[in-house]
Specification:
It comes from Polyplosphaeria fusca. It holds the Pfam family BRCT_2. The chain has helices at about 20-30, 50-55, 55-65, 70-80, 90-130, and strands spanning about 10-15, 35, 45, 70, 135, 145-150, 155-170, 175-180. With about 190 residues, the protein is α/β, with parallel strands linked by helices. The longest helix has about 35 residues, at about 90-130. It starts with 8 loop residues before the first strand and ends with a strand.
């Protein structure tokens, strides 16, 4: 008999893909206690996404008593690792927040990519007087626009080197390097 769920009182709500009887057996066999309904003393509520979103009575009660509302994955992963895992990344509150952030990034990414491309084209126009180039980005998103600074400590002045790699807008791509030196104090 394991002790992976020692000091936990667990209840469940919603369609989880396994029966509540099976969850009860796993919880009891691993040192936890099963509660058929959410009440004071319950430490964890395993909830389906649908029940969490609808804020059914058991979810509201769990929130009121301060129980952790987690996905079924928390139980499954805890049993596989043979220890109670930290609940934070399995809590529906956190999962919903992470999903909203990913959606926002996905929605903003095309605009950010367009802005980076347009900024790279503007640099090519300024540096090479050409509309056919942009700053090269590799597959990791690294922008080949590098500035190096050299400081003269005695006079507290900087010299700057700008090194840029441009890629043509047409295919097959042609590459061009641009280097600018700005002397000390200029």
């Amino acid at each position: 008999m394991g002790a992976a769920l020692k000091n936990t009182v667990i209840s469940a709500t919603g369609e989880l893909g396994v029966s509540y009887d099976q969850i009860k057996k796993w919880v009891n066999a691993n040192g936890g206690q099963w509660s058929p309904k959410v009440m004071k003393g319950v430490t964890h509520l395993i909830s389906s996404k649908e029940h969490y979103k609808k804020k059914v009575d058991s979810v509201n009660t769990a929130e009121e008593i301060g129980a952790r509302i987690v996905s079924y994955d928390w139980l499954e992963d805890s049993l596989q690792k043979k220890r109670k895992l930290a609940e934070k990344k399995y809590e529906w509150k956190k999962l919903g927040h992470d999903r909203r952030i990913r959606k926002g990034i996905k929605r903003m990414a095309p605009n950010a990519d367009t802005k980076r491309f347009n900024d790279g084209c503007a640099m090519a126009r300024a540096d090479m007087e050409s509309d056919n180039y942009h700053i090269f980005l590799d597959e990791t998103g690294f922008e080949y626009n590098i500035s190096l600074l050299r400081k003269n400590l005695r006079h507290n002045k900087f010299a700057r080197y700008n090194i840029r790699l441009f890629e043509s807008n047409t295919k097959p791509h042609v590459y061009c390097t641009f280097i600018r030196y700005v002397p000390l104090g200029a």
